[in-house]
Amino acid sequence: MPTASFANASATGTKADLVMLETTQMVQTPSKPLTLEEFLKLPETKPASEYIDGKIVQKPMPKARHSRLQSKLINAINEVTEEKQIAYAFPELRCTFGGRSVVPDVAVLCWESIEFDENGEPIDDVLISPDWTIEILSPDQSSNRVTGNILHCLKYGCQLGWLLDPDDRSILVFQPKQQPELRQGKDDLMVLDGIELNLTVEQVFIWLKMKED
Q1: Domain 64-206 belongs to what topology?
Q2: Each residue of 8-34: pLDDT tens digit?
Q3: What CA–CA distance (Å, rounded) separates 126 from 115?
Q4: Are 52 and 100 in contact (CB under 8 A)?
Q5: Rounded CA gap, 53 and 36, in Å?
Q6: Pairwise pLDDT comparison (31 vs 88), residue with the higher score
Q7: Distance between CA 124 and CA 212 in Å, rounded?
Q8: pLDDT tens-digit profile of 138-166?
């Protein structure tokens, strides 16, 4: 049965408003559990929604610090990997595998993991885990849920995971079959083999400062 807000939108809203409202209602309160295949047929949402353990979870809207770290990390990685065709860092790339569909803040794929079409362009649908997944914790985001996504990636072939916490300036580093390691301050950060990128935790969070005193 349509809700009151949907009825009001039907009376006064545009077609785009109706589509957006219908999509929001499907994401928030589906009438029955959706399969992964059904979820993938839904329109994309902004911010992106993920399919986790049979549930649809919408990511929080990125804010300034989150977006700043995301863009700086992507630029730093691609600067040393793309020309040599070592790897490529994608922002908000949907990866569907192992019964989940997740959208890491930064998904790094080794070059040989990227599928290309006959024009040399990357194929849109990525059906494997990223080789390196990077998540940036937002204040209103569940750290357990984000950690769960990283662990899921590691279970299905991911080699490295980072979880950045801008509030306490720390980074949790995940590797397959190992305990996560908390890195802070001047601690060096591990990257994928073959990527010539030397970073400390301190250097990563210094990127947040955009204005000199």
Answers
A1: tt1808, chain A (3.90.1570)
A2: 444 445 544 444 444 444 454 446 789
A3: 8
A4: yes
A5: 9
A6: 88
A7: 40
A8: 988 889 999 999 999 999 999 999 999 99
